[in-house]
Amino acid sequence: MTAQSAPPAYIARMSAQLSSLSGASSHRIRPKHPALAWIGLAAIGALPLAACGGDGGQSEGAASDTITVYTCVSDETIQPIISDFRDKNPGTEVDLFRAPTGELNARVAADKRSGGLRADVIWACDPLTMQAYVDQGLVGGWVPDDASGIPADYRTDDYVGAHILYMVAVSHDGSKAPKSWDDLTDPGEKVAVPDPSFAASALGALGYFADSPDYGVQFYDELKHNGAVQVSSPDDVTVGVAQGVYDAGITIATSAYKAQQDGSPVQVAWPEPGAIAIYGPVALVKNSADEKAAKNFVGYVVSKEGQTTVAESGAYPTMEGIDGPTVPEGAPVVLPDWKSIGQQKDRLLSEYQSIFGG
Amino acid sequence: MRRAPSTVVVQRGVFTIVISLVVVLVAFPIARLAQTVWAETDGDLSWILGSAGLVTAVRNTLLLAAVVTVVAVPSGALLALALRRADVPGRGFFRVAVLLPILVPDFVLAYSWTQAYGPAGFTDSMTGLGWDGVRGPVGVAVVVAVNAVPLAYLVTAVGLASRAEPDLERAARVSGAGAWTALRTVTVPLLRPALAAAGVLVFVLTLGTFAIPQVMGAPAGFTTVTTRIYANLSLGGDSASFVEAVTLALLLVVLAGSVVVPADALLGPRLRVRRQAVAEGSVTASAGRAPGRWIAAGLGCYLLATVGLPLLALVAAAVTRAVGLPPAPSNWTTDNFREVMTARTFEALTRSLWLAVTAASLLTLLGACVAVLERRRSGRPLSSMVTLTLVLPGSTLAVALLISYGRWLANTLAIILLAYLAKLWAFAHRPVSGALDRLPPDEVQAARASGASALTAVRTVALRPLLPALMAAWFICFLTALHEVTMSSLLYGPGSETLAVVVLNSQELGGIGPTAALSVLLTLLLAVPAALFWVLLRVVRVPETDPSPEVVPHVA
Q: What's the complex ipTM?
């Protein structure tokens, strides 16, 4: 076998194939056995196709009205929305790609670098992400005419808020429910905060506190001083508080109420000056292949019907006057300034990380 | 050496196909990532590589990988040596139980450990012994190591199965060597290729591990390169963050490469021993003084701590109505199981099973090809090359494949399959490589000269002693592919949702009850094939020349 060992000719062949794959032409390097190399490549090309057999072929032509929605909204909300939309728009099919924000961003970035977004509508979970898509010229430029049902705080000229995440305080039964966010810094309370470099909702909270003259980043410093612990996601906060590992924490209202309804020993509070509202915007993708159907979908999501479906699925709608999940009577709500968060993201995070590490 | 021309053509063909696949699955995707970074930064990486905290993250990553390798590989080897002894009661059970951690997705494993040992966890509420450090660097290292031990065990075990020379060991003992000396001078040297293979795998795997540091490291502010990559992906969605994520992923490739390439170049050829193709079985009777039942007791304790309690915590989470409630019968529910067992799940499970079987079968073939080809001088870089994609976190590998082939393959099962092949190629290659000695060409030629066809010669002479390794490679690829989360949740499209996408993704990786239920179901579902695998392994194992323990007391 060793007697056969070829000189490292395959390296030349490799680079030849590499350049032919990447579309660049190369005349300098000639594969020694071009025929073999191409047979090999053909075999590789055929392999996954053959392997896919009956399962493939789901991407039928764009002739029918089929739109693709990219979202990070949970299945519990997006599935009813899609089926309701289908009922009301027979003939329009909706394909769904749903992933957590990190994976969604990765997918969008990869799409952008391989022939363009393969979506017609994006429904994100925070304005920061959506604004970045707008800035890259991927989405926006259009919102439905009747989006005025959505409060002006939750829309721009490029996207409209379709659901809201409220950052609230969750506390273990028996611990004091905070009346104001300040109460979390009381000595003796072991508090959990979600990691703002992992979850955009946590970054929204960080941005709000940092901007607020009454709090500032030193709010986190005081929390840490009293033994606060950073955990990965808002859900981890809920789990930790429910188990009594922490006395209280900052988490998402839906997650806290869900635990409470299931029977976990937790209480939920909307502390002064208010629960921090993070809205999830929906936007039209530029150069959508089926713009009409895509516009229909966006319009539906922020219409009264769509917002009612959002509310019934257990998420908070952006439209006022729609019965949604629990909001305590007169509960205060505050809004982070996303523009400023977008500009100072790195500084905010590094200040935060100098307190909590990481 | 003269060969029939047909053999040469076949060899060249195989070589060309494997090289092309390395280009398609490894070189081109990584090159595309590099090209992206280059094009979008104009080559100025100082703002990324000089960013605050990166040095700490790199140090944490390297330290973690080193510690985990140093702990997991000897542990795995010890397990393999212990389970080789015929006098250990319940050996069959242990052999399957040792592998259980592979059945559980990473982040579920992390969760189950915090539930078993953390404050307000199992041990805490039962005995008051909670371990605060479980949410911190030490906890991360322990759980990553526990996750890596089965891999190290499997690689060493198949190394033992195909390389052990019980006769040599007995000869050493008869000549007066103690058990320790025999182990040190005979068994371990024979095992070196397997140990090296396990070491490389565990090291690279740990460099790229993400879920465990993210879930368990956050409370201590413990960051790794992978957690920084994810932070960049999840925050912002702007080009700069994306480019930073990709650059960090390439940094991981460089880190892995700078360890693996020299290791392969220096160690690879030297560790191989020329020996006969016929291995002589893997069973030795009592080699040391400790009676088998003591070993069994030790194993039992180890498994109880690393597998039993965490799995129990998982079952408790799966059957409990809400987190924070004691797992008492009044709080039991089947809701979590019902939530997981839907028609969609079943469909996705079928698809995932199919994907995992296809991926594992192709990978075993590809792994074996590389293991053979790396013996040729021109094929040597192959083994290092296919290890480079293992270090890429799932998210960035998926991005690399999308950028490379998304135009044609986006939203298909094919691209998910490609991702599995790229990610797990080293998983399939290293166990085979660690078990394979220089193929004895004279024996294959003897078979050929006696009239066997090329295929028959390979099948009967070369393949048979390799069978345990090939099966282990298949098995580990199958299990890993079956519950793979990150890559499929980034690559799937309509009609190609995998099990993880349908069940775990819809939970935002947070709804721990249903996730735990799924893991429990998966464990049960796989316990059956696992048992089957073990039975098969018994059947195909090379005939034991001397399994009777009665002979050995002369020695002991």
A: 0.84
